[in-house]
From TrEMBL, chain A:
Keywords: Repeat, WD repeat. Pfam families: WD40. InterPro entries: WD40/YVTN_repeat-like_dom_sf, WD40_PAC1, WD40_repeat_CS, WD40_repeat_dom_sf, WD40_rpt. PROSITE patterns: WD_REPEATS_1, WD_REPEATS_2, WD_REPEATS_REGION. SUPFAM superfamilies: WD40 repeat-like. SMART domains: WD40. It comes from Chanos chanos. The keyword Transferase does not apply. The keyword DNA-binding does not apply. This is Guanine nucleotide-binding protein subunit beta-like protein 1. The lineage of its organism: Eukaryota, Metazoa, Chordata, Craniata, Vertebrata.
TrEMBL record, chain B:
SUPFAM superfamilies: ARM repeat (SSF48371). Pfam families: TPR_TTI1_2nd, TPR_TTI1_C, TPR_TTI1_N, TTI1. Residues 13-346 form the TTI1 N-terminal TPR domain. Residues 806-837 are annotated as: Disordered. InterPro entries: ARM-like, ARM-type_fold, TELO2-interacting_protein_1, TPR_TTI1_C, TPR_TTI1_N, Tti1, TTI1_rpt. It is found in: Cytoplasm. Residues 755-1026 form the TTI1 C-terminal TPR domain. This is TELO2-interacting protein 1 homolog. Regulator of the DNA damage response (DDR). Part of the TTT complex that is required to stabilize protein levels of the phosphatidylinositol 3-kinase-related protein kinase (PIKK) family proteins. The TTT complex is involved in the cellular resistance to DNA damage stresses, like ionizing radiation (IR), ultraviolet (UV) and mitomycin C (MMC). Together with the TTT complex and HSP90 may participate in the proper folding of newly synthesized PIKKs. It comes from the Eukaryota.
């Protein structure tokens, strides 16, 4: 257990700005890709085989990109920028055009969240015009589904994750607010189901594991907390782990639900055991500035599932860890 | 050529009749001759009609009992031969009778199988006649000659001919006999027309000759192995006869076909005993006997001096392998060996014929898939492989070359079957052991270790490294051809073998022990090359080529192993720590007297050292071979190798800067290969295009200096070969370098400083500063004064003095603020009111580096201080356009720099002074006050002090450090004063110090430097200069222009010529050139 933490497998350089968000796409249609959204409004499409950007997309008038994702294939990209717009891109056959765009009206930093409800149909949860509002729209039709606003004074919406039980069922949303509370929303009934005050500071980030009905959240404090949803649909504190330095930018649970990665303001990437208790596994040091984003690869070969971290120091580090099963 | 021939048979008859009749009546030589001459006048057609008639008298002569004179018979033979050569025998009776008559005419009367003791000429004539007879016989009758009833006669004839061939002394007779035998076999090789032999007829022939096979083979083998002096033609003919006979009798087709048994022997009486039934048991027994004979033949002909004999051996092998593949199963081995051995014959014809034959065999083998054949081959191969290790140790180069060629030949013939053979672990094991043995390198050469790459700067011009120059030295052979054959063997293995299997096997060997590592790498390199068909000459194509993806994965795994830390980070030079004791050792070695104990100790140490030298040599070779491999792999993969560059380029580049000459050259060759493979025009382009990959490794490795000490070196190479486009990527890594420097400044500072120095040099090139040459300060504008009047001068002087005082008050503001505000310089803000404009990245980098320079300026190591001063100078150059950034930094580093200028090693002072000059050039009057207060007094004082010493010094003084300091200061002082715009007292002190150096007693260089100072100062203040010079020596007296004015009196006036005169005069003339009248 006393092995020294590994070095990154590779560093992607040259984005020219801080990296706010990362998204892997490793289907069989081509080389594995990593999409990165940076502070200068560019979305880089990195080919992970050549480790070079295949394409650089500019569509948010130089406003910071805060979130990117892909829809049904690698050829449809969706991006959210600080220009209050969400854009849908067509990347097929070398194109790079915005095909659709809509204005969210949100001036905050809250990232969107996407859920595929049935093949070809998605629900997009995004921050609304009012700062505490979560809106849900159908995708790709963009028909608004609902707008969710908490009754109490929870403050600005900080983070949102839309999910669905693995067995199916109605979509639900966990949302983190400025006052440090996490709220579970039932999307179909459009009402808050449960509320849990986790922090005294704003919730900076959260992720939710729909298989275990367990989520994790981080704030500007030193603590990463995990919480569960019990049979009565109540949010319950589950576990927490204290860090040396405060501030978490992002949390990600790997698809297999084995590990959780955190992007820290202390320039470090941390890895925790996720299955049962939160247990620190490794501190990955490389970056020289705040780590802003973290993501796991969706490669079909588990051994090639990488961990990526994007930082304010403009680098993206790729790590090959805990994937030798 | 003849006179008109007689066509009409009647006339011909009439013409020939007299001579025929005469001959019958009086058989004399002259009559025969007459008939023969007459024959020439008859056309072939007419002669054919008169054949019997003409032959009759001739035969009559032969048949006449009683002793005849040889001359007569010879004449008859010649005449008969003429007839036979020009006509055809159509009747079987004639053929039979003539055949026996001819034979009888030279055979011994007691034994028809032995020649009579007659003259050579007669034998030749009879043989020629016999040959003509066999050629002239019609196809439908000649085969009756081979019927069982004819066997006795045929046998006698064959015995006779064999006896002639074997025992006759005369070469011509031997040849003629052999030719007859061939004709008898209907396999004559002369250019005349021959009877076509059909399939059935071959059987008839085969049956007949089966009876005589033992005799023929035995006798001919005697001929073949006979005296070398008999001439090659006989040997060749005998071999041909041998192979044709065996090829006919033992022909697979004939032996395999079940035919109705020929006539029952009883009908034939005793003749039946002669008939041989070619049953399978017979053929087996025969093959066994033939094998023995064959081996004898091969052994005495394979190294025959004459190439035709060796060629015939190839033909023989071809003949037998083609026709008797099955029946002579046992002989295949020796035959193949003979063939394969001739592949590299010294004669081109033999070589070509041989490879053609082998190619045919290989192809035939593939199409028919003769398992027995393959078995034999792989058995041969196995036997050879098993003995290979031993043979490689014990035999000489020539033999090794032959054996390896044979080995290669087997592989080529086996073709795609090689894969099957290699799948046997035993085979592969033996082959690889043989290869490991023979490829062992000789690592005793100390020169390899001692050759250092002298160049500190890696030159990447492509044309320099086209070939790998260094020859490898092997322990067990010296002949280069052996190495080349070994390469071919490996490539052929790679071509036909299962790539995964081979690579696995040799990778295991590679990993298993360092003893095999270099050899396995050599083998692996060639296997991969062979797998793609590079440099492989083969007879048959393999079944399927290797697909590119598999190849890629195999190559990647090999490269991964090659460049893993244990196999790549090998020491190639003796460490610094080791080199010191070595020197001591050498010294003690030189001592003539040392007691035994000491000597023993010395011996021990030497031995220990030797092993390390060999280890280093071995390391060097291992790296070189691996580098070669990478180059080969790249060429094999072509542009697909680009993705492998990600992992490979860094290690290769790292080795390009290795201390060992051989390694560094080898790496450069590999770089060239990479360029060629990936279609880059030059290594430079390669590096630029892949700088992102390189930088990634560099930045990761910077963090692990103990394992990867060469990252800075690679970075330095990159800097010196890229352009400004690299900068965005570089910034990132430079930060890493700086961090690494901060973390381990004590151990690695020299390396990192070297890197940063390279970077700064590169940046100065990438961003040329426009106002690098700072314009002269405003005050020193020298305007040409042509109409000079004293009045105007005074007016101007007053005005300028006032003006100067006004500005001077401004300038000499005691408020020595760190950042002089200069709002006009500030660029426009883009990003909003509260954000500072972002600095260009090269400026940021230069600032960051300069920051470190401040610390390192007072480093205890002299080398580092010198380096840092160089860096500082470059930083200043880069920052020269950003005064806002430069000046605060200059302020911060001033005190450290000052210490270098006045309190440091004399080696440092010139360098520091140069930095000061650069600073003066870029910062101008920002430094004036500091320089005049803190630097100038000390400098001028030391100059003055040293002037006394240098004036007295001898010529060797020019080599001292003190001299160099003086020179540097004097050379820099002039421009510095101009740039700093020094005035009055400062200038005076400078002038005072420099005046001392105008003495002709000073070394010439110092005088020149001092002159240059004055020339510079004249631009600033010509009057002061003039005055100072005249105080020293004044060549003229001055008349005041107006009587009211005081006469000018100068100290130098009226002085005798002194040590300063020459230089003062030079300078004064220079001043007057500038301002002609005063």
């Amino acid at each position: 257990m006393s092995l020294p933490p590994p070095d990154p497998q590779y560093i992607l350089r040259g984005s020219g700005a801080q990296i706010n968000t990362l998204h892997f796409r490793c289907d069989n249609e081509g080389p594995p890709l990593l999409f990165s959204g940076s502070g200068n409004g560019a979305v880089h499409v990195w080919n992970l085989n050549t480790r070079r950007p295949e394409k650089v997309l500019e569509g948010h008038s130089s406003s910071s990109i805060i979130w990117v994702s892909t829809l049904n294939s690698r050829e449809t990209l969706i991006s959210q920028g600080r220009d209050m717009r969400v854009c849908v891109w067509d990347l097929g056959e070398g194109r790079g055009d915005v095909t659709e765009a809509f204005v969210t009206g949100s001036v905050g930093f809250c990232q969107c969240s996407l859920l595929e409800t049935s093949p070809g149909r998605w629900l997009l949860a995004y921050p609304g015009e009012q700062m505490e509002e979560v809106r849900v729209a159908e995708f790709p039709s963009l028909i608004p589904v609902c707008s969710l606003k908490p009754d109490s004074k929870a403050g600005m919406l900080m983070s949102v994750k839309i999910w669905q039980k693995d067995s199916g069922g109605c979509p639900e949303i966990v949302a983190g607010y400025e006052d440090g509370s996490v709220v579970l929303w039932d999307v179909t009934q459009r009402r808050p189901v449960s509320c849990l005050k986790v922090y005294s500071e704003p919730v900076m980030c959260l992720d939710f594991d729909s298989g275990r009905l367990k989520g994790a959240s981080g704030s500007s404090e030193k603590v990463i907390s995990s919480w569960t949803i019990d049979e009565k649909q109540n949010l319950q504190m589950h576990d927490s782990v204290e860090l040396v330095n405060p501030g978490i930018s992002q949390l990600r649970v790997r698809d297999d639900g084995k590990i959780l990665a955190s992007a820290g303001w202390d320039n470090n990437l941390r890895v925790f055991a996720w299955k049962k208790k939160l247990r620190p596994l490794a501190v990955l040091k490389h970056h020289t500035d705040m780590v802003l984003s973290v993501g796991f690869s969706d490669h079909h070969d588990p051994r090639q599932r990488l961990l990526a971290a994007g930082s304010k120091d403009q680098r993206i580090s790729l790590w090959s860890i805990y994937n030798q099963s | 050529m003849h006179m008109e021939q007689i066509d009409d048979p009647k006339i011909a008859f009439a013409f020939l009749r007299p001579s025929c009749v005469l001959l019958t009546q009086e058989p004399t030589v002259s009559n025969v001759k007459a008939l023969r001459e007459n024959l020439h006048s008859v056309s072939d057609g007419a002669l054919q009609q008169l054949q019997d008639y003409v032959l009759f008298p001739l035969r009559f002569v032969l048949k006449t009992p009683g002793s005849k004179r040889e001359g007569l018979i010879q004449g008859v033979m010649e005449a008969m031969a003429y007839v036979l050569e020009n006509t055809c025998i159509r009747s079987w009776e004639s053929l039979r009778d003539l055949f026996s008559e001819l034979c009888l005419s030279i055979c011994s009367p007691t034994d028809p199988g032995q020649p009579a003791p007659v003259s050579e000429e007669l034998k030749t004539a009879v043989l020629r006649c016999l040959d003509a007879l066999l050629h002239s016989a019609y196809g439908d009758i000649i085969f009756q000659l081979y019927e069982p009833t004819m066997l006795p006669g045929l046998g006698a004839a064959i015995s006779l001919l064999l006896a002639l061939a074997e025992h006759e002394r005369a070469r011509g007779v031997q040849e003629a006999a052999l030719k007859c035998l061939l004709s008898l076999l209907l396999q004559c090789d002369c250019p005349k027309e021959h009877v076509a032999v059909g399939q059935d007829q071959r059987y008839v022939l085969g049956d007949a000759f089966a009876s005589f096979l033992p005799g023929i083979t035995r006798a001919l083998s005697h001929v073949i192995s006979g005296d070398v002096r008999q001439g090659h033609a006989v040997t060749v003919k005998a071999m041909r006869m041998w192979s044709r006979t065996v090829g006919l009798v033992m022909e697979d087709d004939q032996l395999q076909t079940k035919r109705a048994k020929p006539k029952v022997a009883s009908e034939l009486g005793r003749i039946g005993e002669l008939i041989v039934h070619r049953t399978s048991s017979w053929s087996k027994a025969t093959a066994k006997r033939l094998n023995l004979v064959l081996q004898k033949i091969i052994s005495c002909t394979s190294a025959h001096r004459h190439w035709r004999v060796r060629l015939e051996l190839v033909n023989l092998s071809d003949q037998l392998l083609t026709k008797c593949n099955n029946s002579l199963g046992e002989c295949i081995g020796p035959l193949m060996e003979a063939l394969v051995g001739a592949v590299n014959d010294e004669d081109l014809t033999v070589r070509e014929r041989c490879s053609l034959v082998l190619k045919e065999i290989a192809q035939r083998n593939q199409t028919t898939g003769g398992q027995a054949f393959i078995d034999v081959l792989s058995e041969n191969l196995h036997t050879l492989a098993s003995s290979l290790p031993r043979l490689m140790r014990t035999t000489d180069d020539q033999r090794k070359l032959f054996l390896l060629n044979v080995f290669l030949g087997y592989l080529k013939i086996l073709g795609p079957q090689v894969e099957v053979v290699l799948s046997s672990a035993a085979h592969l094991q033996r082959i690889s052991r043989g290869l490991m043995q023979v490829l062992e390198l000789d690592v005793m050469d100390v020169r390899i270790v001692e050759e250092r790459s002298a160049v500190t700067h890696v030159d990447l011009r492509p044309e320099l490294y086209n070939t790998r120059s260094q020859r490898k030295h092997f322990l067990y052979f010296t002949d280069d051809r052996i190495f080349s054959v070994l390469g071919k063997i490996c490539r052929t293995l790679g071509y036909y073998g299962n790539l995964y299997l081979l690579v696995d096997h040799f990778m295991d060997l590679y990993k298993e022990s360092s003893v095999y590592r270099k050899q396995s790498a050599l083998v692996l390199n060639d296997i991969i090359a062979g797998a793609t068909g590079t440099g492989v000459e083969v007879f048959t194509d393999r079944h399927s080529g290797i697909n590119q993806e598999d190849l890629m994965s195999v190559i990647q795994s090999i490269i991964e192993e090659y460049i893993s830390v244990n196999n790549w980070q090998l020491s190639t030079v003796t460490d610094e720590s080791n080199s010191e004791p070595k020197d001591k050792l050498n010294q003690s070695h030189v001592l003539p007297v040392c007691n035994n104990l000491e000597r023993d100790k010395l011996q021990l140490v030497l031995e220990a050292k030797c092993t390390t030298v060999h280890q280093l040599n071995s390391n060097i070779w291992q790296i070189c071979i691996q580098l070669e491999g990478i180059g080969t792999f790249a060429l094999v993969l072509g542009s697909d190798f680009r993705s492998v560059l990600m992992t490979t380029l860094y290690p290769v580049l790292e080795k390009a800067g290795d201390d060992s000459l051989l390694v560094s050259q080898s790496a450069l060759c590999t770089l060239n290969d990479l360029c060629q493979a990936c279609a880059y025009s030059s290594p430079k382009e390669l590096i630029i295009a892949n700088s992102d990959y390189l930088l990634n490794d560099v930045s990761l490795n910077l963090g692990r200096p103990s394992v990867h000490p060469h990252a800075p070196r690679v970075l330095a190479v990159m800097f010196s070969h890229s352009d400004a486009s690299l900068l965005p990527l570089v910034i990132d890594v430079v930060q890493d370098v700086l961090v690494a420097l901060d973390l381990s400044y004590d151990q690695r500072a020299p390396l990192f400083c070297a890197v940063l120095h390279t970077l700064l040099k590169a940046m100065v090139q990438w961003f040329p500063t426009h106002n690098g040459q700072k314009k002269l300060p405003a005050g020193v504008s020298v305007e040409p004064q042509t109409n000079f009047s004293v009045k105007q001068f005074l007016v101007d002087y007053c005005r300028q003095k006032e003006l100067a005082e006004g500005i001077g008050a401004d300038e000499e503001d005691p408020n020595d603020s760190d950042i002089p505000p200069s709002p006009s310089c500030r660029e426009e803000n883009i990003d909003g009111p509260d954000m500072k404009p972002e600095l260009p990245s090269h400026v940021t980098i230069a600032k960051d580096i300069m920051e470190r320079c401040i610390h390192f300026l007072s480093d205890p190591s002299l080398r580092i201080r010198l380096k840092v001063l160089d860096m500082l100078e470059l930083c200043v150059c880069v920052l020269s356009e950003k005064q806002d950034e430069l000046l605060p930094m200059v302020h911060r580093c001033w005190s450290a720099l000052l210490q270098r200028l006045i309190n440091d090693d004399p080696l440092v002072i010139p360098r520091a002074f140069r930095v000061l000059c650069t600073l003066g050039k870029t910062c101008g009057d920002f430094l004036r006050k500091r320089v005049s207060k803190e630097v100038l007094p000390k400098l001028t004082a030391s100059l003055a002090k040293q002037a006394r010493i240098s004036a007295k010094a001898g010529p060797t003084y020019a080599h001292t450090v003190a001299f160099k300091v003086q020179l540097a200061v004097l050379e820099g002082l002039g421009p510095l004063c101009v740039w700093l715009d020094l005035v009055d007292s400062d200038l005076d002190s400078v002038l005072e110090a420099c005046l001392l150096y105008l003495s002709c007693r000073q070394p010439a260089k110092l005088q020149d430097a001092s002159l240059s100072v004055f020339q510079n100062l004249m631009e600033v203040d010509p009057d002061a200069c003039w005055f100072a010079l005249n105080e020293l020596y004044c060549p003229a007296s001055f008349e005041p222009p107006h009587p009211d004015l005081q006469p000018v009196e100068l100290c130098g006036q009226g002085q005798p010529r002194n040590e300063y005169t020459d230089n003062v005069l030079k300078l004064l003339s220079f001043i007057s050139g500038e301002s002609p009248s005063i």
